[in-house]
């Protein structure tokens, strides 16, 4: 198993910030990188706020909060990958963007560095093919919100080595998460099951079967889901939901995964859910 001390997280959005937080709380030194200045500031502010809440709730001490923040450094240079034993990429769910980042990181990072992606659905094997170290590339799929949700899907690409898998599985346990092992197929396990349900909820709205609120109430009170599917879609991000449905649709070539036209229309309008202030609900 490889020794991991320094972790770089690429992308300081809702997932990247959460991953950086749990890694820093787990005792790792973390570089949190985003190309966007505003995203970095928003990311670190969110982490600060959540850690403060944990102090107030007496889950951690004020000293532990301080120590976690000290282990976190914001980065605007991909070159900081030179310091990393592991890089966890959490940028937009787009194969071209992720592939180009993996290609760049492969040139910068030391030869021992592992490259992980938090992708929700994209092929790890293909990302690995954009590097000269496919045996050291792996999927490490956290759930949203990262500090709360226990699951991490660990996805082996075709060429991922057993050493890489074992190292990442142990890291997930060190972060107090529960890892599951998954093979590299579109949507893996979690989104192959979750996202068609969300897409079907959007079709239910599109076909005028019920209101947004009643669709959510159906699944909350009828199935005991903590959030209704439309609230959850807004929470995940409608752009991310659409990307995942497109990956399932293309990957399985099966019309049962056809993204709902209403989802496409909302994304085109810039209604991306909670993060943009409007989706199926208003957040302003
Ligand atoms: N970030 C960090 N912590 C958060 C949070 C966030 N965005 N939202 C809520 N929490 C914390 C709160 O601080 C609270 O903790 P304390 O009160 O103990 O401090 C705790 O979660 C519970 O929150 P609330 O009481 O405010 O609300 P809740 O009981 O409704 O729980 C929830 C919130 C945990 C998010 C819950 O609604 C839930 O489990 N929702 C479903 C989440 C889900 O399905 N996630 C998976 C999404 S799919 C995915 O991640 C994969 C993908 O690739 C798309
Ligand atoms: P987000 O839109 O909140 O954040 C993405 C961040 O990446 C933004 O801050 C953006 O500035 C940054 N970014 C984009 N291109 C970049 C680049 N070339 N270099 C550096 N930074 C760049 O998205 P998110 O919800 O955090 O999702 C990120 C990834 O995590 C996606 O692959 C998504 O599928 C996956 N994921 C999302 C969820 C969810 O519920 N939202 C859950 C699990 C996994």
UniProtKB/TrEMBL annotation:
Domain 3-hydroxyacyl-CoA dehydrogenase C-terminal intervals: 187-283
Keywords per UniProt: NAD, Oxidoreductase
Annotated 3-hydroxyacyl-CoA dehydrogenase NAD binding domain residues: 7-184
Gene Ontology BP terms: butyrate metabolic process
Binding site for NAD(+): 11-16, 34, 93, 98, 120, 144, 275
Pfam families: 3HCDH, 3HCDH_N
GO molecular function: NAD+ binding; oxidoreductase activity, acting on the CH-OH group of donors, NAD or NADP as acceptor
Biological pathway: Lipid metabolism; butanoate metabolism
Residues flagged as site, Important for catalytic activity: 141
Superkingdom, natural source: Bacteria
Record-linked InterPro entries: 3-OHacyl-CoA_DH (IPR022694), 3-OHacyl-CoA_DH_CS (IPR006180), 3-OHacyl-CoA_DH_NAD-bd (IPR006176), 3HC_DH_C (IPR006108), 6-PGluconate_DH-like_C_sf (IPR008927), 6PGD_dom2 (IPR013328), NAD(P)-bd_dom_sf (IPR036291)
Family listed: Belongs to the 3-hydroxyacyl-CoA dehydrogenase family.
PANTHER family: 3-HYDROXYACYL-COA DEHYDROGENASE FAMILY PROTEIN, 3-HYDROXYBUTYRYL-COA DEHYDROGENASE
Stored NCBIfam families: PRK05808.1, PRK07530.1, PRK07819.1
UniProt name for this protein: Putative 3-hydroxybutyryl-CoA dehydrogenase
Organism, scientific name: Virgibacillus massiliensis
């Amino acid at each position: 198993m490889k020794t991991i001390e320094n972790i770089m997280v690429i992308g300081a959005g809702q997932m990247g910030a959460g991953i950086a937080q749990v890694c820093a709380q787990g005792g790792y030194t973390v570089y949190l990188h985003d190309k966007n200045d505003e995203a970095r500031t928003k990311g670190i502010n969110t982490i600060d706020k959540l850690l403060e809440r944990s102090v107030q709730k007496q889950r951690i001490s004020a000293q532990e909060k301080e120590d976690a923040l000290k282990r976190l450094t914001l980065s605007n240079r991909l070159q900081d990958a030179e310091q990393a034993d592991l890089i966890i990429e959490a940028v937009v769910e787009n194969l071209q963007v992720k592939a180009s980042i993996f290609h760049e990181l492969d040139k910068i990072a030391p030869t021992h560095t592992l490259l992980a992606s938090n992708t929700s659905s994209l092929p790890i094997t293909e990302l690995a093919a954009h590097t000269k170290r496919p045996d050291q590339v792996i999927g490490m799929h956290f759930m949203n919100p990262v500090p709360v949700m226990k699951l991490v899907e660990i996805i082996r690409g075709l060429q991922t080595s057993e050493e890489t898998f074992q190292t990442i599985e142990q890291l997930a346990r060190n972060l107090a998460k529960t890892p599951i092992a998954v093979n590299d197929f579109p949507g893996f396990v979690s989104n192959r099951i979750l996202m068609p349900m969300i897409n079907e909820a959007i079709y239910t709205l599109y076909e005028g079967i019920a209101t947004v609120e009643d669709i959510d109430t159906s699944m909350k009170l009828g199935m005991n889901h903590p959030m209704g599917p439309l609230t959850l879609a807004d929470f995940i991000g409608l752009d991310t939901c659409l990307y995942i449905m497109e990956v399932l649709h293309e990957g399985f070539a099966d019309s049962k995964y056809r993204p709902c036209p209403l989802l496409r229309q909302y994304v085109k309008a810039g209604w991306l859910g909670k993060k943009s202030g409007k989706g199926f609900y208003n957040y302003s």
